Amino acid sequence: MEKQHDMTLMKPRSYRSVLMTGFRLYTENFRRLFKASWQMALLYAIACGAFGTLAVIKLPEMAVALIQQLTVYHGLFQETLVQYFITSLEILGLLLLAISTLALASATIINKLKEHKDTGAITLPPYWLSASPQMMGRSLKGLFFTLLVILIPIVLMVFAIVGAEAFRPQLIANHIITLTATFCIGMLIIFLLSLPLFYVLMKYLMEAPCGYWKTLGNYYGRGMRHWGSLFVVFFVSILLVEIVALVIMLPAHILAIANQQAQMGVLIGDPLGMPSYMPALTFATFMLCCFIEFYVSQVMLVHNYYIYGAIESKEQEHEQQKLDIQ
After folding, report:
1. 313: helix, coil or strand?
2. Which of 42, 63, 126, 231 is 20 to 30 Å from 195 at the Cα level?
3. What is the pLDDT of residue 146?
4. Rounded CA gap, 254 and 263, in Å?
5. CA angle (263 as vertex; 283, 289 as ends), nearest 5
6. Is 29 helix (H, G, I), strand (E, B) or coil?
7. Binning pLDDT at 50, 70 and 90, where does residue 69 land?
8. Average of per-residue pLDDT across 196-200
9. How much is the mean pLDDT over the chain?
């Protein structure tokens, strides 16, 4: 009973307690979470394998071909540009597919976390295919709406730079360092201001059905009041997950670098020298690495779950204190 009480969601916690409790809940219930999510995680890994294979093989090939045409013909063929535009759209489509399947796979974990919120326990799914369509739909909408909110200021910033270049030609070339520093500072500010969005997202997923935008309007300010706790939890969580993910994704990175170096060798007259099974090997490597990496990354989701519970508890205590004073 004591261990169960320690893992209660609605309890004021420090950032240390959030990190430790989240990690303990995830590791102690990994078998249950794995059984509930492995099908969708496999679908996510397949999507990542397709995206990684196309990006790793086609992007360096496209870059080398463009450099060769510019060097030899001092221009680009229209047919080549159309072909590369289509390939770029295919890569973008696979990236969106990978993000979508990530949301669907994470929804299976979120569904078990919601069970933990309601009952205080995570049960073993009675059958292998136990995904909640409702939670998967909310997770998909929540993730894309959150990404949209983050992307809007980034797109506006890019348009501002392009617009300034249109009014003052050579502005980018003459002030490249200043503009780069400004862009990096802007990206940092956007990232810091986006931290409360993850609390809003968990609020949207965990509580009674309501619109994402209404949840954003009502609770973004609450997330900002607890910005410090969100920052510490996410900084530590991301740091640990990225270190482990870097090791896991190392084989995929090695294949990407090898393919890039082979394509660059073509520019100086070397044969490509890549085996015919390279696409299949790349796909299998990316798929396996991303499948493992998915379960590593879900530690951040559980940490977000517990920081959401800590914020809710602190806000409830604050409201109770105000009522007692009145």
Report:
1. helix
2. 42
3. 95
4. 14
5. 25
6. coil
7. low
8. 95
9. 86
CA-CA distance, 296 to 290, in Å (whole number)?
10
pTM above 0.90, yes or no: no
Question: What is each CA distance from 206 to 15, 107, 112, 118, 185, in whole angstroms?
Answer: 20, 11, 11, 10, 33
C-alpha span between 225 and 228 (Å, rounded): 8
Amino acid identity at 138: R
The answer to whether residues 54 and 279 touch, using CB atoms and an 8 Å cutoff, is no
Instruction: Give which of 148, 38, 157, 22 is closest to 96, Cα–Cα.
Output: 148
Tokens linked to 54: 């196309």
d(C-alpha 196, C-alpha 192), whole Å: 9
Tokens of 101: 């399947």
Q: Which of 11, 14, 20, 33 is nearest to 303 (CA)?
A: 20
User: What are the structure tokens assigned to 242, written together?
Assistant: 């990225």
Higher pLDDT, 53 or 322: 53
Q: What is the pLDDT of residues 24-64, one digit of tens each?
A: 999 999 999 999 999 999 999 999 999 999 888 888 777 77
Helix axes 278-325, 30-73, angle to 10 degrees: 120
pLDDT beyond 50 at 4: no
Cβ-count burial 194-210 (b if 16+ within 10 Å, e if not): ebbbbbbbbbbbbeeee
DSSP string for 111-178: HHHHHHHHHS--PPPSSS----HHHHHHHHHHHHHHHHHHHHHHHHHHHHHHHHHHHSTTHHHHTHHH
Output DSSP code: residue 75.
S
The pLDDT tens digits of the residues spanning 141-182 come to 999 999 999 999 999 988 888 887 777 777 766 777 888 888
